[in-house]
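Worked example 3 (structure in, sequence out).
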């Protein structure tokens, strides 16, 4: 336990899917959770807040700097510290116009939007929340990556937009690890697997392999456990296997 009475976490992209299920799991583990809302179609967090008094849904589009700063102000004024930052929000959909020599030209604006959602917010979030994180002795940082981020294992010809953003995320996490690990920060870089899409009513699209609950269970397990090799940055998947990246 930290020096505080309750551990406090911020989870981005918590409207649905992995972020939502990680929020539930952290609440069950006794955390106070500030859960980032982005998609107005989804009210799952609002309903969840009726069940968990320690849940704080907050408006957070991670591609908008002012919204990140506003959430930092909320947490600073209400709580004064942060133990865990879960950088999970991502955009992976959109039309298949991200391949060189494809049927249509690469959509530059969509490429830029993807980087502004999947990659750039991670170091910005850590930078903005660093003063609050330094007030905790827990100091844990989780980043949701992907198997598609591995340069060494890359065999695909499609999904360039998403793959590039996640590879760049890994580089950013490595740089933050080099700087912040000496200050006692513990890093988790996670590959959640191909998860079923969560609908606004909480049901799951069957066209995928994993229930997000399964992936969230492993993600939170990895966050909570103390590893003997914290000085080594690893990419771990939903089965607990280490991946090359």
């Amino acid at each position: 336990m930290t020096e505080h009475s309750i551990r406090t976490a911020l989870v981005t992209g918590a409207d649905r899917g992995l972020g939502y299920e990680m929020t539930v799991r952290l609440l069950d583990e006794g955390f106070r959770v500030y859960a980032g809302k982005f998609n107005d179609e989804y009210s799952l967090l609002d309903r969840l807040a009726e069940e968990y008094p320690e849940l704080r849904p907050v408006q957070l589009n991670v591609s908008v700097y002012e919204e990140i700063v506003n959430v930092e102000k909320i947490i600073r004024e209400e709580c004064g510290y942060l133990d865990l930052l879960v950088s999970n929000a991502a955009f992976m959909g959109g039309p298949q116009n991200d391949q060189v020599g494809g049927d249509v030209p690469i959509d530059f604006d969509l490429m830029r939007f993807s980087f502004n959602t999947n990659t750039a917010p991670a170091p910005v979030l850590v930078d903005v929340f660093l003063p609050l994180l330094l007030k905790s002795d827990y100091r844990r940082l989780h980043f949701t990556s992907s198997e598609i981020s591995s340069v060494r294992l890359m065999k695909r010809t499609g999904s360039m937009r998403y793959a590039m953003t996640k590879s760049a995320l890994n580089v950013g996490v490595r740089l933050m690890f080099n700087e912040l690990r000496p200050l006692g920060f513990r890093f988790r870089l996670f590959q959640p697997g191909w998860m079923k899409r969560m609908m606004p009513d909480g049901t799951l699209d069957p066209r995928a392999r994993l229930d997000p609950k399964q992936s969230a269970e492993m993600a939170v397990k990895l966050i909570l456990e103390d590893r003997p090799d914290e000085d080594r940055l690893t990419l771990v998947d939903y089965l607990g296997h280490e991946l090359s990246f």
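Notes: The chain has a mean pLDDT of 91. The helical segments are 17-28, 44-49, 65-78, 108-118, 121-133, 160-180, 212-224.
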